[in-house]
Amino acid sequence: MREDERLPTGVDRHTFGDDEHLATRGEPVYGEQTDGEWRAWNPTRSKLGAMLELGMDTGLAGGAEETVLYLGAASGTTVSHVADFAGPTYAVEFAPRPTRDLLAVADSRPRLFPLLADARKPETYAHVVESDIDVLVQDVATRGQARVALENRRFLADDGRLLLAVKARSEDVTREPGEVFADVREELATGYEVLETRRLEDYHADHLGVVARPE
Ligand code: SAM
């Protein structure tokens, strides 16, 4: 591991052939490189992977005690890595087709709980998701990304972290991404203290990575 890296337990740098990548231990999901029990975490396929690759201080600790609520799980590319290193991982996705794939991803991951639900309606999964969640990860790529984060703040422990990927084009394709990000930050500030932001440009065009805590 590099000196300055803050990687959760269960995430490490591993060499696959000639390439070094972040990696977790688990069954492969999206055609990623593998070596024995390790699977490469491709930052071009994962905003959270990009945030870790860029050295953002996500606060993720890893380990079976850490609870995660993941919004916008799609077919499980990123949330599969999270469930490889974290504890109970609740994965919300509202599109039925990717959720079917997600169920298959959960087969080999007993701590991954797929939920077919709309992240804008947290009351529909509040009875399933435990309270005082350590980390809320959000990658919904839909309009109203700050509002979704605010509506799901109720699940977070007081010292929990929001790890948010904001896609500028999902808010407004016609506006400068920087303006969109400024608006999202302003809205987020009504319920969160933003600790760190980073453009994910090296890996994902027009995306902002945000680390925040509830306020
Ligand atoms: N996070 C995924 C990964 O890295 O593997 C990719 C997520 S993709 C960019 C965004 C996903 O969010 C889509 O699968 C979409 O169906 C889902 N989504 C969008 N709005 C949602 C909502 N309101 N509730 C739940 N899922 C939503």
UniProtKB/TrEMBL annotation:
SUPFAM superfamilies noted in UniProt: S-adenosyl-L-methionine-dependent methyltransferases
Binding site for S-adenosyl-L-methionine: T77, T78, E93, F94, D118, A119, D139, V140, A141, T142
Listed EC numbers: 2.1.1.-
Record GO biological process: box C/D sno(s)RNA 3'-end processing; tRNA processing
A Pfam family reported for this protein in Swiss-Prot or TrEMBL: Fibrillarin
Family: Belongs to the methyltransferase superfamily. Fibrillarin family.
Protein name according to UniProt: Fibrillarin-like rRNA/tRNA 2'-O-methyltransferase
Gene (UniProt): flpA
